[in-house]
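Handout for the seminar on molecular recognition.
Each group receives one record of this type.
Step one: identify the two inputs.
Step two: read the structure output and locate the region that could contact alpha-D-galactopyranose.
Step three: write two sentences on what you found, then compare them with the reference statements printed after the record.
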Amino acid sequence: MMEKLVEAVRQSFEKKFQRKPLLLASPGRINLIGEHTDYNEGFVLPGATDRCLVFAVAARADRRCRLYSLDFDQDFATDLDHLHRSEWRWPDYLQGVLDQFLKAGYNIGGVDIAFGGNVPIGGGMSSSAAVEAGLAFALNHLFDLKLDLLTLALLAQKAENEFVGLRCGIMDMYANLHGRPGQVLKIDCRHLVHEYYPFDRPELRIIISDTGVRRELASSEYNVRRHQCEQGVRILQKYYPGLKSLRDVSLEMLQEHRAEFDPVVWKRCAYVVRENNRVELACQDLLRHDFNSFGLRMQESHLGLRDEYEVSSPELNLLVEAASAVPGVLGSRMMGAGFGGCTISLVYADAVEAFVESLARAYQGRTGRAATIYVTQAADGVKVL
Ligand code: GLA
Protein backbone atom coordinates (compact mmCIF):
# COMPACT_ATOMS: atom_id res chain seq x y z
CA MET A 1 0.00 0.00 0.00
CA MET A 2 2.78 2.35 1.01
CA GLU A 3 4.83 1.78 -2.19
CA LYS A 4 1.80 2.61 -4.32
CA LEU A 5 1.21 5.81 -2.41
CA VAL A 6 4.84 6.90 -2.69
CA GLU A 7 4.78 6.20 -6.43
CA ALA A 8 1.56 8.15 -6.93
CA VAL A 9 2.91 11.19 -5.10
CA ARG A 10 6.27 11.07 -6.86
CA GLN A 11 4.67 10.74 -10.26
CA SER A 12 2.26 13.61 -9.82
CA PHE A 13 5.09 15.80 -8.57
CA GLU A 14 7.27 14.99 -11.56
CA LYS A 15 4.43 15.47 -14.00
CA LYS A 16 3.42 18.83 -12.55
CA PHE A 17 6.79 20.32 -11.82
CA GLN A 18 9.10 18.53 -14.27
CA ARG A 19 11.81 17.87 -11.70
CA LYS A 20 12.96 15.32 -9.13
CA PRO A 21 11.63 15.61 -5.57
CA LEU A 22 12.80 14.68 -2.11
CA LEU A 23 10.32 12.16 -0.66
CA LEU A 24 9.18 12.06 2.96
CA ALA A 25 6.60 10.18 5.00
CA SER A 26 4.74 12.02 7.75
CA PRO A 27 2.51 9.87 9.98
CA GLY A 28 -0.83 10.40 11.68
CA ARG A 29 -0.85 9.82 15.41
CA ILE A 30 -2.70 7.62 17.82
CA ASN A 31 -3.19 8.49 21.46
CA LEU A 32 -3.62 5.70 23.99
CA ILE A 33 -4.60 7.96 26.85
CA GLY A 34 -4.28 11.59 27.97
CA GLU A 35 -6.84 13.59 26.00
CA HIS A 36 -7.15 17.37 26.28
CA THR A 37 -4.32 17.37 28.79
CA ASP A 38 -1.54 18.69 26.53
CA TYR A 39 -2.61 22.33 26.56
CA ASN A 40 -2.99 22.08 30.32
CA GLU A 41 0.74 21.30 30.58
CA GLY A 42 -0.10 17.73 31.52
CA PHE A 43 0.78 14.26 30.23
CA VAL A 44 -0.18 12.32 27.11
CA LEU A 45 0.67 8.88 25.74
CA PRO A 46 0.60 9.04 21.92
CA GLY A 47 2.61 7.40 19.16
CA ALA A 48 3.07 7.82 15.42
CA THR A 49 1.14 5.33 13.23
CA ASP A 50 1.60 3.42 10.03
CA ARG A 51 -0.99 5.68 8.35
CA CYS A 52 0.85 8.56 6.76
CA LEU A 53 1.08 11.37 4.26
CA VAL A 54 3.75 11.24 1.63
CA PHE A 55 5.39 14.50 0.61
CA ALA A 56 7.32 15.14 -2.58
CA VAL A 57 9.18 18.44 -2.21
CA ALA A 58 11.88 20.50 -3.87
CA ALA A 59 13.38 23.89 -3.07
CA ARG A 60 13.12 26.73 -5.58
CA ALA A 61 15.60 29.48 -6.35
CA ASP A 62 12.83 32.13 -6.20
CA ARG A 63 10.10 32.78 -3.60
CA ARG A 64 7.22 31.08 -5.37
CA CYS A 65 5.37 28.20 -3.74
CA ARG A 66 3.41 25.73 -5.84
CA LEU A 67 1.32 23.34 -3.79
CA TYR A 68 -0.63 20.33 -4.93
CA SER A 69 -2.90 18.09 -2.85
CA LEU A 70 -3.49 14.65 -4.36
CA ASP A 71 -6.34 13.92 -1.96
CA PHE A 72 -8.31 16.98 -3.08
CA ASP A 73 -6.80 17.15 -6.55
CA GLN A 74 -6.32 20.89 -6.10
CA ASP A 75 -3.47 23.25 -6.97
CA PHE A 76 -2.61 26.33 -4.97
CA ALA A 77 0.04 28.87 -5.88
CA THR A 78 1.41 31.62 -3.69
CA ASP A 79 4.74 33.18 -2.82
CA LEU A 80 6.54 33.79 0.42
CA ASP A 81 5.69 37.50 0.43
CA HIS A 82 1.97 37.01 -0.13
CA LEU A 83 0.88 34.16 2.10
CA HIS A 84 -2.85 34.42 2.66
CA ARG A 85 -5.71 32.37 4.10
CA SER A 86 -7.39 30.35 1.39
CA GLU A 87 -10.99 29.23 1.05
CA TRP A 88 -9.75 25.63 1.15
CA ARG A 89 -8.24 24.46 4.38
CA TRP A 90 -5.32 22.36 3.26
CA PRO A 91 -3.16 25.19 1.82
CA ASP A 92 -3.42 27.01 5.14
CA TYR A 93 -1.65 24.24 7.03
CA LEU A 94 1.26 24.53 4.61
CA GLN A 95 1.25 28.32 4.41
CA GLY A 96 1.08 28.54 8.19
CA VAL A 97 4.34 26.63 8.44
CA LEU A 98 6.05 28.76 5.79
CA ASP A 99 4.82 31.82 7.66
CA GLN A 100 6.32 30.62 10.96
CA PHE A 101 9.68 29.87 9.40
CA LEU A 102 9.74 33.37 7.94
CA LYS A 103 8.67 34.99 11.20
CA ALA A 104 11.40 33.11 13.06
CA GLY A 105 13.89 34.52 10.55
CA TYR A 106 14.98 31.22 8.98
CA ASN A 107 16.47 31.50 5.57
CA ILE A 108 14.03 29.62 3.33
CA GLY A 109 13.11 30.04 -0.31
CA GLY A 110 10.11 28.97 -2.35
CA VAL A 111 9.06 25.30 -2.66
CA ASP A 112 7.24 22.93 -4.96
CA ILE A 113 5.14 20.40 -3.04
CA ALA A 114 2.86 17.51 -3.91
CA PHE A 115 1.41 15.48 -1.06
CA GLY A 116 -1.25 12.93 -0.28
CA GLY A 117 -1.86 9.92 1.91
CA ASN A 118 -4.07 7.65 3.92
CA VAL A 119 -4.44 9.50 7.21
CA PRO A 120 -8.21 10.04 7.48
CA ILE A 121 -8.73 13.77 6.93
CA GLY A 122 -10.22 15.47 9.99
CA GLY A 123 -10.67 12.03 11.51
CA GLY A 124 -9.00 12.40 14.89
CA MET A 125 -5.57 11.08 13.86
CA SER A 126 -4.31 14.57 13.28
CA SER A 127 -3.92 14.74 9.56
CA SER A 128 -3.33 18.47 10.11
CA ALA A 129 -0.24 17.89 12.25
CA ALA A 130 0.98 15.39 9.68
CA VAL A 131 0.83 18.18 7.09
CA GLU A 132 2.40 20.83 9.30
CA ALA A 133 5.13 18.79 10.94
CA GLY A 134 5.83 17.06 7.63
CA LEU A 135 6.49 20.38 5.93
CA ALA A 136 8.50 21.71 8.88
CA PHE A 137 10.71 18.63 8.65
CA ALA A 138 10.98 19.04 4.87
CA LEU A 139 12.00 22.72 5.07
CA ASN A 140 14.61 21.90 7.68
CA HIS A 141 16.05 19.34 5.30
CA LEU A 142 15.76 21.32 2.05
CA PHE A 143 17.30 24.50 3.43
CA ASP A 144 19.76 22.79 5.77
CA LEU A 145 18.56 24.70 8.83
CA LYS A 146 19.82 22.20 11.43
CA LEU A 147 16.80 22.64 13.71
CA ASP A 148 16.03 19.93 16.26
CA LEU A 149 12.76 18.01 16.33
CA LEU A 150 11.32 19.93 19.27
CA THR A 151 11.87 23.25 17.50
CA LEU A 152 10.12 21.85 14.42
CA ALA A 153 7.19 20.66 16.55
CA LEU A 154 6.84 24.10 18.14
CA LEU A 155 6.92 25.83 14.75
CA ALA A 156 4.25 23.46 13.43
CA GLN A 157 2.07 24.05 16.49
CA LYS A 158 2.39 27.82 16.14
CA ALA A 159 1.41 27.51 12.49
CA GLU A 160 -1.85 25.88 13.51
CA ASN A 161 -2.44 28.32 16.39
CA GLU A 162 -1.79 31.48 14.40
CA PHE A 163 -2.53 30.78 10.75
CA VAL A 164 -5.29 28.19 11.03
CA GLY A 165 -6.64 29.58 14.30
CA LEU A 166 -7.01 26.39 16.33
CA ARG A 167 -5.35 26.70 19.73
CA CYS A 168 -4.15 23.10 19.65
CA GLY A 169 -1.57 21.73 22.05
CA ILE A 170 1.80 20.19 21.24
CA MET A 171 0.87 16.49 21.34
CA ASP A 172 0.17 15.82 17.68
CA MET A 173 3.25 17.42 16.17
CA TYR A 174 5.45 16.10 18.94
CA ALA A 175 4.27 12.52 18.42
CA ASN A 176 4.43 12.85 14.63
CA LEU A 177 8.09 13.91 14.80
CA HIS A 178 9.34 11.67 17.63
CA GLY A 179 7.48 8.42 16.88
CA ARG A 180 9.29 5.09 16.88
CA PRO A 181 8.14 1.65 15.70
CA GLY A 182 6.53 -0.39 18.47
CA GLN A 183 6.81 2.44 21.00
CA VAL A 184 4.60 5.14 22.42
CA LEU A 185 5.79 8.30 24.13
CA LYS A 186 4.80 9.68 27.46
CA ILE A 187 5.16 13.40 26.86
CA ASP A 188 5.44 15.86 29.68
CA CYS A 189 3.79 18.81 27.98
CA ARG A 190 5.11 21.33 30.51
CA HIS A 191 8.78 20.52 30.21
CA LEU A 192 8.52 19.24 26.63
CA VAL A 193 10.42 16.06 27.32
CA HIS A 194 9.39 12.47 26.69
CA GLU A 195 10.08 8.85 27.60
CA TYR A 196 9.43 5.91 25.31
CA TYR A 197 7.33 2.93 26.41
CA PRO A 198 7.28 -0.30 24.39
CA PHE A 199 3.85 -1.02 22.96
CA ASP A 200 4.15 -3.99 20.65
CA ARG A 201 2.82 -7.03 22.51
CA PRO A 202 2.31 -9.81 19.97
CA GLU A 203 -1.03 -10.80 21.53
CA LEU A 204 -2.51 -7.28 21.36
CA ARG A 205 -3.76 -5.07 18.57
CA ILE A 206 -4.58 -1.38 18.40
CA ILE A 207 -7.77 -0.81 16.41
CA ILE A 208 -9.03 2.48 15.03
CA SER A 209 -12.75 2.76 14.28
CA ASP A 210 -13.75 5.81 12.31
CA THR A 211 -17.29 7.17 12.69
CA GLY A 212 -16.96 8.95 9.36
CA VAL A 213 -18.47 11.98 11.10
CA ARG A 214 -16.60 15.26 10.72
CA ARG A 215 -17.81 18.19 12.75
CA GLU A 216 -16.60 21.72 12.25
CA LEU A 217 -17.82 22.24 15.80
CA ALA A 218 -14.64 20.58 16.96
CA SER A 219 -12.52 23.68 16.45
CA SER A 220 -14.85 26.19 18.07
CA GLU A 221 -15.67 23.90 21.00
CA TYR A 222 -11.99 23.09 21.34
CA ASN A 223 -11.15 26.74 21.94
CA VAL A 224 -14.08 26.98 24.39
CA ARG A 225 -12.65 24.05 26.41
CA ARG A 226 -9.28 25.74 26.57
CA HIS A 227 -10.88 28.89 27.81
CA GLN A 228 -12.80 27.01 30.52
CA CYS A 229 -9.58 25.42 31.75
CA GLU A 230 -7.98 28.86 31.94
CA GLN A 231 -10.95 30.18 33.90
CA GLY A 232 -10.50 27.41 36.45
CA VAL A 233 -6.82 28.22 36.78
CA ARG A 234 -7.56 31.89 37.39
CA ILE A 235 -9.91 31.07 40.28
CA LEU A 236 -7.34 28.87 41.99
CA GLN A 237 -4.49 31.32 41.41
CA LYS A 238 -6.06 33.60 44.01
CA TYR A 239 -5.26 30.95 46.61
CA TYR A 240 -2.13 29.41 45.12
CA PRO A 241 -0.08 32.21 43.57
CA GLY A 242 2.55 29.91 42.04
CA LEU A 243 -0.08 27.90 40.17
CA LYS A 244 0.31 28.07 36.39
CA SER A 245 -1.97 25.48 34.86
CA LEU A 246 -4.24 22.54 35.71
CA ARG A 247 -1.04 20.49 35.86
CA ASP A 248 -0.50 22.03 39.30
CA VAL A 249 -4.01 21.27 40.54
CA SER A 250 -5.20 18.33 42.65
CA LEU A 251 -8.75 17.08 43.12
CA GLU A 252 -8.57 18.21 46.76
CA MET A 253 -7.85 21.77 45.66
CA LEU A 254 -10.77 21.65 43.26
CA GLN A 255 -13.08 20.27 45.95
CA GLU A 256 -12.10 22.91 48.44
CA HIS A 257 -13.00 25.78 46.13
CA ARG A 258 -15.87 24.15 44.30
CA ALA A 259 -18.41 26.75 45.43
CA GLU A 260 -16.57 29.48 43.55
CA PHE A 261 -16.66 27.65 40.24
CA ASP A 262 -19.27 27.71 37.57
CA PRO A 263 -20.38 24.03 37.67
CA VAL A 264 -19.50 23.45 34.02
CA VAL A 265 -16.02 24.91 34.45
CA TRP A 266 -15.56 22.76 37.54
CA LYS A 267 -16.46 19.60 35.64
CA ARG A 268 -14.01 20.44 32.88
CA CYS A 269 -11.20 21.01 35.34
CA ALA A 270 -11.99 17.85 37.32
CA TYR A 271 -11.78 15.85 34.10
CA VAL A 272 -8.35 17.23 33.24
CA VAL A 273 -6.96 16.59 36.72
CA ARG A 274 -8.28 13.02 36.69
CA GLU A 275 -7.07 12.34 33.17
CA ASN A 276 -3.58 13.49 34.07
CA ASN A 277 -3.56 11.06 36.99
CA ARG A 278 -4.78 8.32 34.68
CA VAL A 279 -1.86 8.82 32.32
CA GLU A 280 0.61 8.42 35.18
CA LEU A 281 -1.16 5.28 36.39
CA ALA A 282 -1.47 3.88 32.88
CA CYS A 283 2.30 4.22 32.43
CA GLN A 284 2.81 2.26 35.64
CA ASP A 285 0.45 -0.39 34.24
CA LEU A 286 2.67 -0.62 31.18
CA LEU A 287 5.77 -1.16 33.30
CA ARG A 288 3.95 -4.03 35.05
CA HIS A 289 2.57 -5.34 31.72
CA ASP A 290 -0.86 -5.04 33.26
CA PHE A 291 -2.96 -4.48 30.15
CA ASN A 292 -6.23 -5.25 31.90
CA SER A 293 -5.73 -2.32 34.19
CA PHE A 294 -4.50 -0.21 31.27
CA GLY A 295 -7.69 -0.99 29.34
CA LEU A 296 -9.87 0.01 32.28
CA ARG A 297 -8.17 3.38 32.37
CA MET A 298 -8.93 3.87 28.68
CA GLN A 299 -12.53 3.11 29.52
CA GLU A 300 -12.54 5.66 32.37
CA SER A 301 -10.95 8.20 30.08
CA HIS A 302 -13.85 7.80 27.67
CA LEU A 303 -16.43 8.28 30.40
CA GLY A 304 -14.66 11.45 31.50
CA LEU A 305 -14.58 12.78 27.94
CA ARG A 306 -18.24 11.91 27.51
CA ASP A 307 -19.68 13.12 30.81
CA GLU A 308 -17.28 15.69 32.26
CA TYR A 309 -15.44 17.21 29.33
CA GLU A 310 -18.40 16.65 27.01
CA VAL A 311 -16.51 16.32 23.76
CA SER A 312 -17.77 12.90 22.70
CA SER A 313 -20.66 12.30 20.28
CA PRO A 314 -23.46 9.73 19.95
CA GLU A 315 -21.53 7.96 17.18
CA LEU A 316 -18.33 7.77 19.22
CA ASN A 317 -20.26 6.52 22.25
CA LEU A 318 -21.95 3.91 20.13
CA LEU A 319 -18.62 2.57 18.86
CA VAL A 320 -17.15 2.49 22.36
CA GLU A 321 -20.17 0.70 23.79
CA ALA A 322 -20.21 -1.84 20.97
CA ALA A 323 -16.48 -2.44 21.46
CA SER A 324 -16.83 -2.92 25.19
CA ALA A 325 -19.39 -5.67 24.67
CA VAL A 326 -16.95 -7.81 22.63
CA PRO A 327 -15.03 -10.41 24.66
CA GLY A 328 -11.29 -9.87 24.35
CA VAL A 329 -11.51 -6.08 24.20
CA LEU A 330 -9.39 -4.55 26.97
CA GLY A 331 -10.38 -0.93 26.50
CA SER A 332 -11.90 1.52 24.07
CA ARG A 333 -12.33 5.27 24.00
CA MET A 334 -12.78 8.23 21.71
CA MET A 335 -9.48 9.63 20.48
CA GLY A 336 -8.34 13.16 19.73
CA ALA A 337 -10.28 16.38 20.03
CA GLY A 338 -13.72 14.73 19.79
CA PHE A 339 -17.19 15.51 18.36
CA GLY A 340 -16.44 13.21 15.45
CA GLY A 341 -13.50 11.23 14.23
CA CYS A 342 -12.52 7.89 15.65
CA THR A 343 -12.14 5.62 18.64
CA ILE A 344 -9.07 3.64 19.69
CA SER A 345 -9.44 0.16 21.14
CA LEU A 346 -7.02 -2.30 22.64
CA VAL A 347 -7.99 -5.80 21.56
CA TYR A 348 -6.57 -9.32 21.86
CA ALA A 349 -5.37 -10.51 18.44
CA ASP A 350 -7.73 -13.48 18.44
CA ALA A 351 -10.72 -11.21 19.06
CA VAL A 352 -10.07 -8.86 16.12
CA GLU A 353 -12.41 -10.63 13.73
CA ALA A 354 -15.31 -10.65 16.18
CA PHE A 355 -14.56 -7.02 16.98
CA VAL A 356 -14.73 -5.88 13.38
CA GLU A 357 -17.89 -7.85 12.74
CA SER A 358 -19.80 -6.62 15.78
CA LEU A 359 -18.79 -3.00 15.39
CA ALA A 360 -19.60 -2.92 11.70
CA ARG A 361 -22.98 -4.49 12.38
CA ALA A 362 -23.85 -2.28 15.35
CA TYR A 363 -22.80 0.90 13.58
CA GLN A 364 -24.59 0.13 10.36
CA GLY A 365 -27.69 -0.96 12.25
CA ARG A 366 -27.93 2.16 14.39
CA THR A 367 -26.71 4.87 12.03
CA GLY A 368 -27.28 3.42 8.57
CA ARG A 369 -23.65 4.23 7.77
CA ALA A 370 -20.50 2.14 7.56
CA ALA A 371 -17.71 2.58 10.09
CA THR A 372 -14.17 2.23 8.78
CA ILE A 373 -12.22 -0.10 11.04
CA TYR A 374 -8.54 -0.93 10.81
CA VAL A 375 -5.70 -2.37 12.82
CA THR A 376 -2.76 -0.03 13.26
CA GLN A 377 0.53 0.03 15.14
CA ALA A 378 3.04 2.43 16.59
CA ALA A 379 5.45 3.39 13.81
CA ASP A 380 8.20 5.80 12.78
CA GLY A 381 7.95 9.56 13.05
CA VAL A 382 8.52 11.79 10.01
CA LYS A 383 11.36 10.51 7.88
CA VAL A 384 13.03 10.90 4.52
CA LEU A 385 12.24 7.94 2.29
C1 GLA B 1 -6.28 17.71 19.12
C2 GLA B 1 -5.17 18.72 19.41
C3 GLA B 1 -4.19 18.17 20.45
C4 GLA B 1 -4.90 17.65 21.68
C5 GLA B 1 -6.07 16.74 21.28
C6 GLA B 1 -6.92 16.37 22.47
O1 GLA B 1 -5.74 16.57 18.49
O2 GLA B 1 -4.48 19.04 18.24
O3 GLA B 1 -3.26 19.17 20.79
O4 GLA B 1 -5.32 18.70 22.51
O5 GLA B 1 -6.91 17.33 20.33
O6 GLA B 1 -6.19 15.58 23.36
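Reference statements: The pocket of alpha-D-galactopyranose is lined by residues 35-36, 38-39, 126, 168-169, 171-172, 336-337 (CB under 6 Å). The two ends are 15 Å apart (CA to CA).
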